[in-house]
UniProtKB/TrEMBL annotation:
Domain of life: Eukaryota
Protein name per Swiss-Prot or TrEMBL: Aminoglycoside phosphotransferase domain-containing protein
PANTHER family: AMINOGLYCOSIDE PHOSPHOTRANSFERASE DOMAIN-CONTAINING PROTEIN, AMINOGLYCOSIDE PHOSPHOTRANSFERASE-RELATED-RELATED
InterPro entries on file: AGP_Transferase, Aminoglycoside_PTrfase, Kinase-like_dom_sf
Domain Aminoglycoside phosphotransferase: from-to ranges: 105-317
Region entry Disordered, spans: 1-22
Length: 465
């Protein structure tokens, strides 16, 4: 999921003491909250508590239900027990009978069962899945996942501790480095689970994965059309179902296949995008798809005050994806400078002037921490891949963003093409609009195409970016 970081990032709150879920998104959840049987929340908690804590022979096991907290696509109700134990009931915004469909139900089951599988098979810190229901035909009248909460500090607060809390710069660097190393150690474990096709995981009755099936993906183009073409202000997500596929490139191009452009310039952008994607090398000698966190960004990590990883949250949409954008890729907050439409860094931030929205790191700072993360990934990896997937993901992940999000497409391609042309050793400056026109007309000069491919290959393998 690709988020614009204009405000300090929302995350799915993981603690009843956590103020991250604010009320700005409350209106988005009005429909699901109107059908939710809130009286059943403490009874659900009590039932699961008695099942999981049979040694506590008491009658007063009904939890206190806290105020709802709002994430991007879920509302969460904290349940606090007399022991101090805290759980969360996570309910999707589209969890009403008229909006809940088969692909959403399958996605919830895949999320819950994948989390349970990872909890058993890895040391990745993630919430316990205590119970779940993928139907509206239950006591709550809404689908839900019941989770343990993870205490700690949002990574954003530690990452920008020198801005938010006046932390010493060296202390801040040590905390950032510690966080990146522990995140790399967690993410590399997902590489143990590879598949021949992309998609959400399907499980056997014993909880072991059988393979992959259809994957629910957010359809940004449909959402934008709803707002700006159909003048519909609704803010709930729109999803598309992506069938399991053995073709890594089909994963990249799914959204542009779903929404073929009509205007000439957009056709040219998509043609260039497809060409660049076709040149992305696939690693050899291994399954092409790997289990990957669906939203590898700063809002989904909880750490200690010193930066040690405490938890990774929001696994909604977890799936097997192409290795070139898989578990070894850079974290999203380290590649923001390659997405010009979304990157909000201002020079005034370097003087400590507080921005209206979220803090951002400078391009040199991001490049520095990319090297820290790449080194951490290299130390954790056991295999000798034919491709440096971490380094390459700076380009591949932004190509995926360009394919998925029309708002970002033109600026990402303009920026990447400029870098490609510079590395191709061309003396003249490239006219981007003219290039897009020739792609739209399917009339790109062979010498230009060769130069683009040469520069692209150089860019993919360049150190220090």
């Amino acid at each position: 999921m690709h988020n614009k970081m204009t405000q300090p990032p929302d995350r799915e709150p993981e603690s009843p003491l956590d103020p991250a879920g604010n009320y700005e998104n409350a209106e988005l959840f009005s429909e699901v909250l109107s059908v939710l049987n809130k009286n059943e929340l403490p009874l659900l908690g009590q039932d699961i508590f008695r099942r999981t804590q049979p040694q506590l022979d008491r009658t007063d096991t009904k939890p206190v239900v806290g105020e709802p907290m709002y994430g991007s696509y879920h509302v969460l109700f904290p349940l606090t027990f007399y022991t101090g134990l805290c759980w969360l009931v996570k309910i999707p915004t589209n969890g009403t009978a008229d909006k809940w469909d088969d692909i959403s139900a399958s996605s919830l089951v895949a999320e819950a069962k994948t989390m349970q599988f990872l909890k058993r098979e890895t040391t990745i810190p993630l919430p316990d899945v205590l119970d779940f229901s993928s139907t509206t035909q239950n006591a709550l009248r809404c689908p839900y996942i019941l989770l343990s909460y993870i205490s700690g500090v949002p990574l954003y607060d530690v990452w920008f501790g020198h801005r938010l809390s006046g932390d010493d710069l060296e202390v801040n660097r040590a905390r950032r480095t510690r966080a990146l190393k522990s995140i790399a150690s967690a993410m590399i474990q997902l590489g143990n689970f590879s598949f021949r096709t992309s998609g959400s995981l399907i499980f056997a009755s014993d909880g072991s994965p059988l393979g992959t099936g259809p994957l629910r993906r957010v359809d940004q183009k449909a959402i934008l059309d709803r707002w700006f073409v159909h003048q519909d202000p609704a803010d709930d997500p729109i999803y598309a179902s992506y069938a399991a596929s053995s073709d890594p490139k089909a994963y990249y191009t799914f959204m542009v296949d779903q929404h073929p452009p009509e205007k000439s310039f957009q056709k040219g952008l998509v043609a260039l995008l497809r060409q660049l994607i076709s040149w992305v090398p696939e690693p050899s000698g291994t399954d092409r798809f790997v289990l990957t966190h669906p939203d590898f960004d700063i809002q989904n990590f909880i750490v200690s005050e010193d930066g040690d990883l405490r938890g990774i949250i929001d696994w909604d949409g977890v799936a097997a994806v192409p290795r070139t954008i898989g578990n070894a890729k850079y974290p999203g907050w380290l590649t923001r400078d390659w997405d010009p439409a979304m990157y909000g860094h201002l020079e005034s931030m370097e003087q400590g002037i507080e921005p209206d929205g979220a803090w951002e790191d400078s391009p040199p700072c991001l490049a520095d921490y990319r090297q820290v993360y790449k080194s951490a990934i290299a130390k954790c990896q056991r295999d000798d891949s034919s491709v440096d997937l971490c380094r390459m993901s700076l380009i591949t992940d932004n190509l995926l963003i360009a394919a998925d999000d029309p708002r970002c497409r033109s600026e990402i391609l303009r920026d990447i093409t400029r870098r490609i042309w510079n590395r191709a050793g061309q003396g003249s400056e490239l006219d981007f609009v003219e290039l897009i026109t020739t792609f739209a007309e399917n009339n790109v000069d062979i010498s230009v195409m060769n130069a683009l491919q040469l520069g692209f290959n150089v860019l993919l393998t360049e150190e220090g970016l």
